[in-house]
Design a protein that fits this description.
This protein is of the alpha/beta class and 490 residues long. Helix content is 38%, strand content 21%. It is built from 15 helices and 22 strands. The strands form six sheets. A seven-stranded mixed β-sheet has the order 14-15-16-13-12-18-19, sandwiched between helices. Helix 9 links the parallel strand 12 and strand 13. It is globular. The model has no long low-confidence stretch (mean pLDDT 97). Bound molecules: NADPH dihydro-nicotinamide-adenine-dinucleotide phosphate. NADPH dihydro-nicotinamide-adenine-dinucleotide phosphate binds at residues 157-161, 184, 186-187, 216-218, 221-222, 225, 236-238, 241, 244-245, 259-262, 293, 393, 395, 421, 461, 465-466.
Amino acid sequence: MLSPTKVKVEPGKLFINGQFVDAQAGGTFDTINPATATVLTQVAEGREADIDMAVKAARAAFDSGPWTRKMSASDRARILWKVGDLLLAHTEELGELETLDSGKPVTECTKIDVPLAADCFHYYAGWATKIHGETIPVRGPFFNYTLREPVGVCGQITPWNFPILMAVWKLAPALACGNTIVLKPASYTPLTALRLAALCKEAGLPDGVLNVVPGAGSVAGMALVRHPMVDKIAVTGSTPVGQQIMREAAGTLKKVSLELGGKSPNIVLADADLDAAARGAMTGIFYNKGEICTAGSRLLVEQSVHDALLEKLVERAGKTVPADPLDPKCRFGPQVAEAQMNTILRYIGKGKEEGARLVTGGNRAKVGDGKGFFLEPTIFDGVTNDMTIAREEIFGPVLSVIPFSDMEDAIAKANDTIYGLSSGIWTRDIKKAHRLARELRAGTVWINTYNVFDNASPFGGYKMSGFGRELGAASIELYTQTKSVWVDLS
Ligand code: NDP
């Protein structure tokens, strides 16, 4: 028996044109509590017809302009600010709901994810009044200026690992720029996005501006990607799904931005503060039970400090105990779903098969009645970059320790991956730190820290980790387009 919760979990409906409605075909799917393997509730299952209805509502809202042409930017900003305030006012409720649906530790949801989501709305509320074009000194008797306009109807597809935060990273900037939206949340974790839609309505967002349609990625997601009235698609998910979406989006030439997978190197040089590096390695791989795209899943360690660091890692991993995610002391909850847990166990098996040395963990863990999808934090040593566990994104709490001999070896190994999302460097040598920061082919480099985010700092991938930057001013680029206006002055 795990902790009780105060949250009343309601069945989920589709949110279309400001109303919660059933799916047209009447279908539903179960959403499961991964800590107990029990059904939390049923959620309406959107299909092509529902996506069509949601897109038409978003199109009508965009074209008739209640959110853009008929509302001033400062009024838009006020509504976005209010959404941020409502998120803060509902932190406990949203945090517990997120924990029930995803297995994320409740303290992380209430102290990190929901406050960051609120801050994201506050941050982009500030942007709404600061999006404008330029005047350009052109040749001849002309006045030339640019208008910075919203892209139109945005299809946004989000993953299950940070459900509310990933939705907000996409919604807040898109709304600040004056777009309208159809959001398709991940099927494992649709509940907080639906609750967020209700809070947006309460804050005064006009009907049709935000629509939320849960449903299978291959059906509802694909219908959104293919819909001719959608102008842009933004996705956070796996690289294969990103590739498929990009191919399909070509049919209607939509603008596309993709935040995809990673296999990030976290590099420890011999001169590093090893206690800090060990702490950072733990945060790098075990935060959010390894279900994080920036996971520092390849720990590259300079040979001379390998044994000392490994000892510290094993000791810390031993203290990272899988626990009931509703317990405020929990820092390591269950994997999101049985299928995800089994995928991770298969990778652990592959690591052993290919000759990596399992130094700790490797098994399913028993919490409560043992039915939840808990795993032990797992560390492999003696990993080489050609092993499957060093090449493929596991998206779970599995660390691969890979020794290196010198800086050149570290750079070569770090960049020897198809991915380029993030990276970490641990050193006291400022020259080495900055040199490495330039050499690493990744969208984020953390020096003597790991997994730090801020709504003002751009985030996104190099190589097959995707393209387009979210957060900061970069998101304004993603959600606006530029119109050039010429006036004859002769
Ligand atoms: P998926 O790529 O399977 O799914 C992501 C989203 O895409 C879900 O909403 C999913 O719907 C939807 N989807 C799946 N197939 C299609 C399709 N054919 N057309 C349209 N939409 C589709 O990833 P996961 O949800 O499994 O999330 C984990 C993955 O996401 C990891 O690889 C991770 O690295 C990556 N990720 C990247 C992040 C980043 O910022 N770069 C952040 C978080 C995760 P459904 O749920 O119904 O399948």
